[in-house]
Design a protein that fits this description.
The complex is a heterodimer of chains A (about 350) and B (about 525). With about 350 residues, chain A is of the alpha+beta class. Chain A has 2 domains: about 130 residues, Phosphorylase Kinase, domain 1; about 230 residues, Transferase(Phosphotransferase) domain 1 (Transferase(Phosphotransferase), domain 1). Chain A has a 5-stranded antiparallel beta sheet, covered by helices on one side. In chain A, strand 4 and strand 5 form a beta hairpin. The longest helix of chain A has 24 residues. Chain B has about 525 residues and is an all-alpha fold. Chain B is built from 27 helices and no strands. In chain B, helix 8 packs antiparallel against helix 9 and helix 10 runs antiparallel to helix 11. The radius of gyration of chain B is 28 Å and the shape is elongated. The chains are: A alpha+beta (about 350), B mainly alpha (about 525). At the A-B interface, helix 6, helix 7 and helix 8 of A face helix 2, helix 3, helix 5, helix 6 and helix 7 of B.
């Protein structure tokens, strides 16, 4: 389908929004064909078209909602309703984040709607975000040696703060992964982004009926093996803990915990979703996952062997990514009856470790 | 010399192997994995399609951009989905390898794709004491990193047992049981351990303490085998058969249970039902089930084991016995050596291997090495000590032989007194004290006859004959005749003749007498002593 046949979101180049933003260039797609040539991650790619915009010399990122799929859907109204609900929900969560001054979460700096023609599909609701330097996957490729450790520990600290800020408002992210942790200000600040898959306790969300709304390649084992903890908020918080811990493995080893765990398993024990043959449910596989996880911790420890913060990092990884969801989280917090998923101790830990690593760098 | 702990019938007491080997044998498969996989639910199907779509999007991005970031993203999808054969994955892996800053796991995965994955060696290998210690230290470090890893605790217990550190093994096994009280591997390891320690009642109480035992054919097989070892009647007979016939489990998962039930049926005289069960057990048998079927076939002579069981990569116990019965001594010894690697702590391959090596006395050094390797894990096993004494005596190391038999005698084992006396007789013979040797053999034979242990008496007599045949051809002939008479008499009474008696008897004619000077010995008669 060419650009002209697509919804208005694809035809915004050169347009000026009411608020004064000028749409400058597409991000990660070819403006002639509409073909994707790159991902721009960090603000979600589902049903949206990304651009760079500018106002008064300040550049930002615009995410326009794409109605193309709704135009060609069998049930147009249902599809429109779904896209609309997702956009409205994300916008409302972003507003809460902005109102709560969440400084480690990427929040919208503007939102609205633009139309490039007289028809419904010519309209494009949009959200505008701060323009990031990039996500941590690309940024870390430029770091090496001791600088690298201090750099990613700061990213971990900021990610934990961001997640903690969300949790305090009852929001679970559900899709924390390297492409959703963005760098700003020349790597001084990192922020958690893409709330398109999040849930908000007490508020209906488009994904609330899914056991897990995020990227399955980063999902914790209880999800992969089909266990659905009926306590929905508890389940989601434990998923967030897993994905936060998974970032440690990513920064040190290059893969997240889920991918490393899957790589350790033989076909008879792998989840069916990933081409395996295990159909015995979640609980019976946990002991073998623990054994695979021990190996992952050993590898992590080995790769951190020259680091002054190795022991504490491996311990944090072992707590955040325990394959047994009931054992996930800080032991002292789990021991208490309230706030067992609190990230406060990890906020302090990563803050301290990043400072130690920074001192050690010089 | 004795070939094994013959008072014990064989049962499918679980093997206790390393985690990797147990995984390879199917012990870690989900119990329902035989049944055709359930179709993906709508949600799972949607997720699977979404994962594959992501994979193809990442492949396209990589091919269009040649950007190493996209190469890494493609490998991230590939490692999760197990997609390694795609050409784009290979080119992405090559790109990642050229990036000197690639993270270690990313680089290792890329390396595995480019140069092929090195398959882990599944067949067991013999570890030296130092290697064992190093493996234990490695696992203890893993336990420090992840104290909830019950399987590693159980595997570490196994390594301690292989070193002969029974107390440490027990401690770690208890720890594993605390963490994983219902896990198949841990429960089977516990059953094996306490049977090995001569405490089958303890093994039974652990197995029966888990609700899973009634539902899992691997555990039910362990329970029934342990009951047999403990001398208690099998429990849950009907439900055990139901587990086999339910169709809910893979052929591999029910092979040991079916073999154990088949053993009970055949020994109990139910030939048809026994064979039916053994056939089920032979469909996709574990190494343990193969050894069981081979044993039952040999013991009952109801069927030829080869009719039921085909060849298997690691069926060393069965191969050892089969070769022994076919007089293939070298093959039998080789199979014993491999059998020992499966369970280095087990005494049976060492005892049997030492016996096999000593029959023709052509591979005594290998028999000794095998028995000593087993002795490392079982320094107090009286049968093994006895066989070590015998093998040393045959090698001419009579003082070492005397040392081992003395240690064997300190382990009070009433059933062994006849054997130990005969071994002492052998040592005297090999020391040149023929009269003393003869007296000790005669005492052993009399003792056996008093207890009406005719086959034991015959065995001692046979070994005495072997010594006498070394002195003169006449002795060989007269002992041969006497043994033939005794065998005939016992056969008429339907007493089974031990295989080793027939083998040793057949070797008399090959004996080349040595010149020991004039001797005044009188041979005892056995056939007349049997009333």
């Amino acid at each position: 389908m060419g650009i002209e046949e697509r919804a208005g979101a694809w035809r915004l180049l050169g347009q000026t929004l009411e608020s004064g933003w000028v749409i400058l260039e597409p991000v990660g797609w070819d403006p002639r064909s509409g073909d994707s040539i790159d991902h721009y991650n960090g603000t979600g790619g589902n049903f949206s078209v990304p651009y760079v915009v500018e106002k008064n010399g300040r550049r930002a990122f615009l995410k326009a909602i794409d109605l193309t799929r709704a135009m060609t859907a069998v049930d147009v109204l249902a599809e429109l309703q779904m896209i609309s609900a997702a956009h409205t929900f994300e916008a409302s969560v972003l507003k809460i984040c902005a109102d709560s001054s969440m400084d480690r979460v990427v929040v919208a700096i503007d939102s609205g709607q633009i139309s490039v023609g007289p028809n419904l599909q010519d309209k494009a609701p949009y959200l505008i975000f701060e323009l990031a330097d990039g996500d941590v996957r690309r940024r870390i490729q430029k770091k090496s040696g001791k600088v690298r450790l201090a750099w990613w520990l700061r990213a971990m600290h900021h990610a934990t703060v961001g997640l903690s800020q969300l949790h305090k408002r009852g929001i679970t992210h559900q899709d924390l992964k390297p492409s959703n942790l963005l760098s700003f200000g020349g790597d001084e600040v990192f922020k958690v982004s893409d709330l398109g898959r999040c849930t908000w306790e007490g508020h209906p969300s488009p994904h609330e009926l899914l056991p897990f709304a995020g990227d399955q390649k980063y999902a914790p084992p209880e999800i992969l093996y089909g266990y659905i903890n009926p306590q929905a908020q508890d389940r989601r918080l434990r998923c967030d803990l897993w994905m936060l811990g998974s970032m440690i493995f990513f920064f040190v080893r290059g893969f997240g915990t889920t991918q490393l765990l899957l790589n350790e398993l033989q076909v008879p024990q792998k989840p069916v979703l990933f081409g395996g043959a295990w159909n015995g449910g979640y609980r019976p596989i946990v002991p073998l996952l623990q054994t695979c996880f021990s190996k992952l911790l050993l590898d992590l420890e080995f790769d951190l062997r020259d680091s002054p913060v190795s022991r504490e990092l491996v311990k944090a990884a072992s707590e955040l990514c325990n394959p047994d969801h009931e054992l996930r989280g800080h032991p002292l917090m789990r021991a208490g009856s309230r706030n067992s998923h609190s990230l406060e101790r990890y906020v302090s830990l990563f803050d301290r470790l990043s400072k130690v690593a920074a001192q050690n760098r010089s | 010399m004795i070939e094994g702990k013959t008072s014990e019938q064989r049962h499918v007491v679980p093997r206790w192997r390393t985690l990797k080997q147990a995984q390879f044998s199917g012990e870690f498969d989900s119990v329902r994995s035989s049944v055709a996989l359930e179709p993906l639910t709508h949600d799972a199907d949607r997720m699977r399609r979404s994962l594959l779509k992501d994979f193809y999007v990442e492949r396209t991005s990589w091919l269009k951009t040649n950007d190493v970031l996209h190469a890494e993203e493609l490998l991230t999808s590939a490692i999760a989905l197990g997609e390694r054969d795609e050409p784009a994955v290979l080119s992405a892996a090559i790109a990642v390898l050229s990036n000197t800053l690639a993270a270690p796991a990313m680089a290792a995965f890329a390396e595995a794709i480019v140069h092929g994955r090195v398959e882990e060696r599944i067949l067991p290998t013999l570890l030296s004491v130092n290697e064992l210690r190093s493996e234990i230290a490695f696992r203890k470090h893993l336990l420090l990193l992840n104290p909830r890893d019950g399987l590693i605790a159980a595997e570490t217990a196994l390594l301690h047992l292989n070193l002969g550190q029974h107390h440490k093994a027990e401690g770690l096994l208890k720890r594993a049981l605390r963490v994983l009280p219902d896990h198949r591997y841990v429960l089977r390891a516990a059953a094996r351990f306490w049977c090995h320690e001569g405490k089958p009642d303890r093994a039974l109480s652990i197995l029966r303490g888990s609700a899973r035992t009634k539902l899992d054919p691997w555990l039910k097989a362990a329970e029934m085998a342990t009951e047999a070892v403990a001398g208690t009647p099998p429990s849950g007979w009907k439900s055990a058969k139901e587990l086999v016939r339910s169709g809910r489990f893979s052929s591999r998962s029910i092979s040991e249970l079916a073999s154990q039930i088949g053993t009970f049926e055949l020994i109990g005289g139910s030939r048809k039902q026994g064979l039916e069960m053994l056939r089920v057990g032979a469909m996709s048998p574990t190494e343990n089930a193969i050894a069981q079927i081979e044993f039952v076939g040999r013991e009952t002579a109801v069927f030829e084991p080869d009719e039921l069981i085909g060849s298997s990569q690691d069926a060393f116990e069965a191969s050892a016995h089969k070769a022994y019965w076919n007089n293939q001594w070298d093959t039998a010894l080789e199979a014993c050596e491999s059998w020992h690697l499966i369970e280095p702590f087990s005494t049976r391959p060492g005892i049997f291997g030492a016996f096999v090596a000593s029959v023709r006395s052509t591979s005594l050094d290998r028999g000794l090495a095998l028995a000593m390797a087993v002795h490392k894990s079982n320094p107090h096993d009286p049968v093994l000590l006895n066989n070590l004494a015998v093998i040393h005596a045959y090698m001419g190391n009579t003082s070492r032989a005397q040392d081992f038999i003395n240690r064997s005698k300190t382990m009070f084992e009433p059933q062994l007194t006849v054997t130990q006396k005969a071994t002492e007789g052998l040592i005297k013979f090999r020391s040149g004290s023929f009269n003393e040797g003869l007296l000790l053999y005669e005492a052993a034979i009399s003792s056996a006859l008093e207890k009406k242990q005719y086959t034991t008496a015959l065995r001692a007599y046979c070994f005495l004959g072997r010594e006498m045949a070394r002195l003169s051809a006449e002795w060989a002939e007269s002992f041969g005749k006497e043994i033939d008479r005794t065998i005939g008499k016992l056969r008429r009474r339907n007493v089974p003749i031990p295989r080793d008696v027939e083998i040793i008897r057949a070797l008399y004619s090959e004996s080349i007498p040595q010149d020991f000077g004039p001797l005044s010995l009188s041979a005892p008669s056995l056939s007349e002593a049997i009333n």
